[in-house]
Write a structure and sequence with these properties.
Length: about 475
């Protein structure tokens, strides 16, 4: 068998011949057929034959093998030449060299000081005992604890152990069998048995005739990143917050595991098959749609809370946040955002809202411009206005003209930080035009937008009693 002869006689130069697709030992004696069985070397030479005939040229190639005389961890390279003759083709296998001295070995030197661990293996066989390791760089030695001479001739499977994912190993095998470039995260083990997580970037390498000659595997240690991701996942689980992205051109949507959990759906369910709007309470769907349309058209982020029902029918309150990413030409190319289960917080807020709604005093908020952003229901009881009619109005529209200067002065003092709190008495008009006396206790609440928060008590009767001299 030719392949066996090439390996067992490394110092002998050998030539074989081809005619009409058949390979012979002697060009003059066509009875000495070399290949009877369909060996890997026959497939390779047949490939070169087709290529040479198509391109009408010769080709150099490397025959790489493990020297069986010197031991399985000794890699040898025979530089070989496939050329045309008057009667067919001649294939010359020159004397073998140690891989370090060969042109192939010299090309690997550039990998020696690469930061990532690098392994180079033979292209075939894929199954055990292959693909066997031909080369390992310094970073691989430092990371794995193995010296190069300890892994040469062995399969990268020596790095895997009980914590290595069976699915990840199947993915690797399937991609190798399909000659695909791919990435895979897997848990490997050092020589001393310590686990570490690596992201493998594996690619097949072909010679000029298109024959796959070896695999190159870059292995980046992502153990710290995995710990970070695990911690982040725990934080997201505790906070009940996930994140999502939407790519505009491809319409590709990504949900983090926590988003699936909030929806009550199995992780990995294709997002494009989910009618996510159907999970919102019916009266909320129009509001969600309007927010998204505004975000797209005006390129503005949104942040709001909605009533929501998961796949099990459980009522939840969710906070939905989104923000557009805009290219230099002004077009939105992606959206990203957060999705949070705020049911516990919102239910507590509802309890607090009950206290606000049942308070005898008016509780209100005013923005930096002096306009009301919230007033409690007691406003209608004390002054007659519907609270919705007050939101958006400036406080100066309701304060008695003679008291407006003192109210504005107190408002500015609090909002500028000169005063921490204000206690001021003033007159306001009710819906019917009646003048009522109020006392406000107000403070500044700092945030993305500063807010004046106040509690206004009706002191009309108190003032009347004080003016009549019967107030103690």
């Amino acid at each position: 068998m030719l392949e066996q002869q090439l390996k067992s006689n490394p110092e002998i130069q050998m030539s074989i011949y081809e005619k009409d697709g058949i390979f012979y030992k002697d060009q003059k004696n066509l009875n000495q057929i070399i290949f009877v069985e369909n060996s890997s070397l026959k497939k390779r030479l047949s490939h070169y034959l087709k290529w040479c005939l198509k391109e009408n040229r010769s080709v150099d190639f490397d025959f790489i093998f493990f020297d069986e005389l010197e031991g399985k961890n000794k890699v040898k390279v025979r530089r070989s030449y496939f050329e045309s003759t008057d009667h067919g083709h001649k294939i010359t296998f020159y004397k073998s060299q140690n891989i370090e001295s060969s042109e192939f070995g010299k090309s690997l030197r550039i990998l020696k000081d690469v930061k990532d661990a690098v392994l180079v293996t033979e292209s075939e066989p894929i199954s055990s005992p292959g693909p066997r390791i031909l080369y390992a760089n310094t970073s691989f030695e430092n990371e794995s604890g193995y010296k190069q001479n300890e892994v040469i001739g062995k399969s990268p499977r020596i790095l895997q152990g009980e914590g290595s994912s069976a699915q990840a190993m199947r993915n690797i095998k399937n991609n190798l069998q399909n000659w695909a470039s791919f990435k895979q995260v897997i848990t490997n083990y050092t020589k001393s048995g310590e686990p570490f997580t690596v992201e493998l970037s594996i690619s097949p390498v072909a010679d000029e005739a298109g024959w796959w000659t070896h695999w190159v595997s870059f292995q980046r240690n992502v153990t710290k990143q995995k710990i970070h991701d695990t911690s982040l996942a725990k934080i997201q689980d505790i906070a009940k917050v996930g994140y999502w992205t939407l790519k505009i051109k491809s319409q590709e949507i990504y949900w983090s595991p926590e988003v699936y959990k909030i929806y009550g759906l199995p992780e990995g369910t294709p997002v494009n098959t989910i009618n996510s709007f159907s999970f919102y309470a019916e009266h909320e769907r129009g509001r969600v749609t309007n927010l998204l349309e505004t975000c797209v058209e005006q390129k503005k982020k949104f942040d709001d809370i909605f009533e929501f029902y998961d796949s099990f029918g459980k009522k939840k309150w969710v906070r939905y946040y989104g923000e557009p990413l805009v290219e230099s030409d002004g077009n939105v190319y992606e959206f990203f955002g957060a999705f949070q289960d705020v049911s516990i917080l919102f239910n507590e807020t509802l309890k607090f809202q009950d206290l606000i709604d049942n308070s005898p005093d008016i509780i209100y908020q005013i923005d930096e411009s002096g306009c009301f952003t919230f007033v409690s229901k007691s406003w209608e009881h004390l002054l007659g206005h519907n609270p919705d009619d007050i939101v958006g109005k400036h406080f100066s529209q309701l304060v008695h003209p003679e008291d407006l200067q003192i109210c504005e002065s107190e408002f500015v003092s609090v909002m500028s930080g000169i005063k921490k709190r204000t206690f001021v008495e003033y007159r306001v008009y009710s819906k019917s035009g009646e003048v009522r006396y109020h006392r406000t206790n107000g403070v500044l609440t700092r945030g993305e937008k500063n807010i004046f928060q106040g509690i206004a008590s009706d002191i009309t009767n108190e003032r009347a009693a004080r003016d009549e001299g019967s107030f103690f």
